[in-house]
Write a structure and sequence with these properties.
This protein is mainly α. The protein has 18 helices and 3 strands. A hairpin with a 2-residue loop joins β2 and β3. It is globular, with a radius of gyration of 22 Å. The model has no long low-confidence stretch (mean pLDDT 94). It binds acetyl coenzyme *A. This is Citrate synthase. One of its GO terms (molecular function) is citrate synthase activity.
Length: 399
């Protein structure tokens, strides 16, 4: 109900770009995406090659420091992370303050925010040494916090990290281990989780990463900025989509709805229902990460004994969508999270943990982008403009 060109004239020289569809807010040397061609590269390396040959730890190093580590550098990186896994004992008490059925995402963002209160010695964004320590603290402690949020929600005791394990193995043990039992890490699960974390590790200026940068642009510390990113990731249009996909598949299964009937509902936009796990702001082609996940989903679900019926429903929805004009015209393809939920479920994670797993994966990207922003002399505080559509000036009625 308003004329944008008129408003632009009133405001002066600004651009109007809701959702930042066409606004580059920064330069970046970290991740390259060609959405039309379906290309994704971290620091120049194709995602397919990293998925096949690298590890989450190595990819984290690559994103943060710009190049692949030598074997010695990787070993030192690994050791430093292992050194920082313990949570402050008082931070552990923090988990009791939430309702038992709390979603682990806000628990995670609150605990990460609280790290600024426990580690006041590493909060200066312009002190390189302090930024390094904060980086290690976050990489080491966030998976531990995530596992404790899970344990709290299921009423099980929290274990201490065992630093003979690497980051991913430790996280699995803290999530599924019990004090009275010896926990054996299943190499199939560890490898599959490592792969999914690699695929989520960075995705240039997405909603949560832009949030991390925006908060950090006021010189807020790394913990505060990442905590904000976790909250941005929580929404179902972003990281929350992986949980929403599984809910959707289970609903279709429980109602006995035919996938083709569900598709009709989506196309008619009944109750605003969307095909969750489909569509992307940048990819107007098959998401290259989804290709990798789909290729491994079958293999992993066979090994882990996942729910074949849900996979079947997912594949039928995809097949229908790829041959349907509604989806073809709008260039809607499966995104990374269309199949991930099925794998997380087969690993034994409850649905509420899915987006937390995304957050653990995205962490090195957030850290790398925050560090790039802080060290860029061209960084300015993020402060968008607006077009005012409210009341014109009016006098206060003096009674
Ligand atoms: N199902 C049905 N229709 C869709 C879907 C979908 N999943 N996604 C987009 N559309 C339609 C819209 O209704 C719109 O149609 P219209 O032109 O008739 O109005 C058109 O496609 C364009 O959609 P927008 O919402 O304008 O696209 P935008 O780039 O703003 O949104 C988003 C991208 C948020 C990812 C969207 O596709 C979506 O909501 N997808 C489902 C949620 C999801 O899977 N999110 C995960 C994103 S990836 C990630 O964070 C890992």
């Amino acid at each position: 109900g308003y004329d944008v060109s008129k408003l632009l004239k009133q405001t002066g020289a600004v651009t109007f770009d809701p959702g930042f569809m066409n606004t580059a807010a920064t330069t970046s040397a970290i991740t390259y995406i060609d959405g039309d061609a379906g290309i994704l590269r971290y620091r120049g390396y194709p995602i397919e090659q990293l998925a096949q040959h690298s590890s989450f730890l190595e990819v984290s190093y690559l994103l943060i420091y710009g190049n692949l580590p030598s074997p010695t550098e990787l070993e030192a990186f690994d050791q430093r992370i292992r050194h920082h896994t313990l949570l402050h004992e008082e931070l552990k008490g923090f988990f009791s303050g939430f309702p038992r059925d709390a979603h682990p995402m806000p628990v995670l963002s609150s605990a990460v925010s609280a790290l600024s209160t426990f580690y006041q010695d590493s909060l200066d964004p312009f002190n390189a040494e302090q930024v390094e320590v904060s980086t290690y603290r976050l990489l080491a402690k966030m998976p531990v916090i995530a596992a404790y949020a899970l344990k709290k929600s299921i009423g099980q005791p929290m274990l201490y990290p065992d630093n003979s394990h690497n980051l991913v193995e430790n996280f699995l043990r803290l999530s599924f281990g019990l004090p009275a039992e010896q926990y054996e890490v299943d190499p199939v699960i560890a490898k599959a989780l490592d792969l999914l974390l690699i695929l989520h590790a960075d995705h240039e200026q997405n909603c949560s990463t832009s949030t991390v940068r925006l908060v950090g642009s006021s010189n807020a510390n790394l913990f505060a900025s990442v905590s904000a990113g976790i909250n941005a990731l929580f929404g179902p249009a972003h990281g929350g989509a992986n949980e929403a996909v599984l809910k959707m598949l289970r609903q279709i299964q429980a109602d006995g709805t035919k996938p083709e009937d569900y598709m009709e509902k989506v196309k008619n936009k009944e109750d605003g229902v969307r095909l969750m796990g489909f569509g992307h702001r940048v990819y107007k082609n098959y998401d290259p990460r989804a290709k990798i996940v789909k290729a491994t989903a079958h293999e992993i679900l066979t090994k882990l004994g996942g729910n074949d019926e849900l996979l079947e429903i997912a594949m039928r929805l995809e097949e229908k969508a790829l041959n349907d004009d509604y989806f073809i015209q709008r260039k809607l393809y499966p995104n990374v999270d269309f199949y991930t939920g099925l794998i997380y479920k087969a690993m034994g994670f409850p649905e509420k943990m899915f987006t937390v797993l995304f957050a653990i994966g995205r962490l090195p990207g957030w850290i790398a982008q925050w560090r790039e922003m802080i060290s860029d002399p061209n960084t300015k505080i993020g402060r968008p403009r607006q077009l005012y559509i409210g009341e014109p000036e009016r006098d206060y009625p003096v009674r």
